[in-house]
Amino acid sequence: MDGFGQWVVIRELYTGVKQGAYLPRQYLEGWWVSKLSLCRCAQIMIAHIDIGVSPSSMSRLRTALVFMLQSATVGLAAAFVVVYLFPSLLPGRGQAPSVPGTSYANAVTAAAPAVVNLVGSTRRAGLEESAEPATVESLGSGVIMAPEGYVITNEHVIAGVTSVDVYLTDGRVAAADIVGTDPDTDLALLRIELDGLPRIPVGRSDTLRVGDVVLAIGNPFSIGQTVTQGIVSGTRRGQLGLSPFENFIQTDAAINLGNSGGALVNAAGQLVGINTAFFSRRLDSEGIGFAIPVNLVRGVMDDLIAHGRVIRGWLGVGTETLTRDQANSLGLEDGFGIILTSVQQGSPADLAGLRPADVITYINDKPVVVWQDALRHIARMKPGSEVHLQGSRLGEGFKAVATVAERPAYDPCLLYTSDAA
């Protein structure tokens, strides 16, 4: 390669650096680093200048060109080395591509200020107050639902505590009063007295589809507010043994210890669920988390504000779901139903003449396929209202009318299937 070609190489390299291009490794390790002669380049350039220049001017020009080329080459060499070692310094290099629509920062900005950390004091049962100081620890998370200071969380988060403090993301702290709890759904409602409280936007859980993007916001492992992202993996999940009334949203957004009571929001930052549990064989998340749908949360919250408890209908029977083979063996044409395993003495079911081993196939003309159908249907009814039952007794069809009573307080010692409705 002649001198003019060497000059072209330098010019192209310099232009490439200015445009943010990567430098090929050979330009740093090849011939030009050790053999390129700046003076030779200057001489070749001068040789291309019109011969009409005077010798004295030519001398001054040669000196100036050599000085400029030496200075430029030293700077370029240093830049080449730095860029080679640290390519991320070039514009657009070493960064993940920014694809429009993939950031959920706006959703987090809308929802995160209303997600709080709950810190509580607990004391070992049976000890006098002076015997041992109370233990103060982070309990979990909560969500501010209204500017009046109502904070929703899980019942298991605050179970057994003597006091609860609510820590906001803006640094404020307030003591909370317990408005009410609902162990049947694992929800609890607190209230704090502070001005200018943030309120989370509330969406709808009944419109969620499998595959929708969701964000879980909470305080896992007490490390501070954290956001994880995933999708809706399933809806209407039940029979998990977590609570009597189960209708969970399943998500693969990481839900860990401390996330309980926190927010599950959609891509618009709207609350769609309250994070409650995760499935794991260890103490970390395995991508199977569960949240209580916000539609259910709103109903429980309204009852707790109005009555301090949730009022549900109750018949006083234990039930089990019939398999199709069992239904066929009993001669049930519909091939579905639930069988009464017990009837509490003096309960509405007892007063209506229901007996153990009765099979119920319809409640208010709606088919009963699994025992959860009966539980939810009766629970939605107001105490004092009538419920019409249809089924089979000893192979013969029968009908009965019962007056619904208020469901007693939840007893965790009872199996859910033995106290279904």
Silhouette? elongated
- How does the helix and strand content classify structurally? alpha+beta
Strand order of the largest sheet: 1-2-3-6-5-4
The largest sheet is: 6 strands, antiparallel, barrel
Q: State the distance separating the first and last CA atoms.
A: 93 Å
Roughly how many Å is the radius of gyration?
36 Å
Number of separate helices: 11
Strand content: 25-35%
* Poorly predicted runs: 1-39, 92-99, 411-419
Number of strands: 20
Helical proportion, percent range: 25-40%
Average residue pLDDT: 78
Quick recap:
This protein has 421 residues and is of the alpha+beta class. The protein has eleven helices and 20 strands.
Walk me through the structure.
It is a single chain. By secondary structure, this protein is an alpha+beta fold. Helix content is 26%, strand content 29%. The protein has helices at 3-18, 25-29, 31-35, 38-47, 55-85, 105-111, 155-158, 294-307, 324-329, 348-351, 371-379, and strands at residues 115-122, 135-144, 150-153, 161-167, 173-182, 187-191, 213-218, 226-237, 248-251, 263-266, 271-278, 289-293, 313-314, 317-321, 338-343, 359-363, 366-367, 386-393, 396-403, 405-406. β16 (359-363) and β17 (366-367) form a beta hairpin. The protein is elongated, with a radius of gyration of 36 Å.
